[in-house]
Specification:
About 50% of the residues lie in helices and about 15% in strands. The chain is built from 7 helices and 5 strands, in the order βααβαααβααββ. It has a 5-stranded parallel sheet, sandwiched between helices.
């Protein structure tokens, strides 16, 4: 299984937060699972730390590359095809971070780990 973590799923995993569903926790912990984290999530965390919406994540964003490496998570860069698809994606969902994650999951054939039911309307595979 190849998973792309939504930003909240990443933060809840790192915090050991029980808000992360049991199926998601089990899939992420499975040694056979390939877990990816998008550069868009780094952008989202940094933005929210800067504007005061995620003050508790300052350590995470300052050490994100090392933290991801310690978890054996792979970095997923934002490519031109991802950006084009996210920008052209139909629908009224305005969150640019979510749109990017959806586009990346679609293009890369990944299952998106997220509690966002709205993602289902975009035809993306979602685990929760």
């Amino acid at each position: 299984m190849r998973l792309l973590l939504d930003t909240h799923a990443l933060l809840w995993w790192l915090d050991g937060d029980v808000q992360l569903s049991l199926p998601a926790r089990e899939a992420i912990a499975n040694q056979q699972t390939v877990v990816l984290v998008s550069a868009a999530s780094a952008w989202e965390i940094a933005t929210k730390v800067r504007i005061g919406k995620l003050p508790g994540a300052i350590h995470v964003i300052e050490h994100l590359a090392e933290i991801l490496d310690s978890q054996d998570f792979f970095h997923l860069p934002v490519g031109v095809d991802h950006a084009r698809r996210a920008g052209l994606m139909p629908g009224t969902h305005r969150d640019p971070f979510d749109r990017m994650l959806i586009a990346q999951a679609q293009i890369e054939g990944l299952t998106l780990v997220s509690n966002e039911i709205l993602f289902d309307t975009f035809g993306v595979a979602r685990l929760w």
